[in-house]
Amino acid sequence: WEYPYVYHQVQRWRTQQPAGLRPLLVDVGCGVTFLPFALARLGCRVVGADIDPICQHDLSRAAAAVPAHPGTVEARLIENGRLPLADGEADGVLCVSVLEHIPNYEGSLAEMARVLKPGGLLVVTLDMSWREDHALAPSAYRRLRTALESHFELTQPEPSVHPADLLR
Q: Which helix (H) or strand (E) holds 113?
């Protein structure tokens, strides 16, 4: 259900952008999904960034075959923990249920902050468990929340969203 949530957030953000702007969005840990193509169809230039060379290969193949107009989709490889973008290059950064799988999420958050323009959009979703024996238990979430706040100004409340609420 995180995909409709992210799509909704980007769609709402796009309505606030100047006409004709083709913002650059980075989908960190993108895998190979439909999301970059759906966001490109909103008029975004989407860079799918992942550590997996197979993902880079397959997403590049998909980008050559799947229509994304009026935007574009491009695959880039994350190497040595560094996002393949210049400082402040991205208008938006997305991270869809990935951070809880990264042992050094602090470094990943620092990289997201590095590539994001001041005032840019950050959308993060997390799969959290209420059980302490899972990767993102409440105690681990508090550390992650502190790390997020050290790099970003959180402007919206943390929603717990059910997908049906977005489809009404």
A: helix 105-115
One-letter amino acid for residue 112 of the chain = M
Residue 51 pLDDT more than 60? Answer: yes
Q: Which two tokens stand for residue 74?
A: 């491009």
Gap between the Cα atoms of 14 and 134, Å rounded: 35
| pTM, 2 dp | 0.87
User: In this structure, what token pair is assigned to residue 73?
Assistant: 């989709």
pLDDT at 37: 98
Q: What tokens appear for 44 in the block?
A: 């975004």
Angstrom CA distances, 147 to 22, 45, 104, stand at 30, 28, 11
Strands 45-50 and 72-77: parallel
128 neighbors 101 (Cβ within 8 angstroms): no
Per-residue tokens: 168? 């009404």
Tokens of residue 55, six digits: 């993902």
Strand stretches in the chain, DSSP E: 24-28, 45-50, 72-77, 90-96, 116-125
Mapped onto helix, strand or coil, the DSSP state of residue 83 is coil
DSSP at 82: B
How far, in Å, CA of 163 to CA of 50, rounded?
26
DSSP letters for 124-165: EE----SSTTSTT-HHHHHHHHHHHHHH----S------HHH
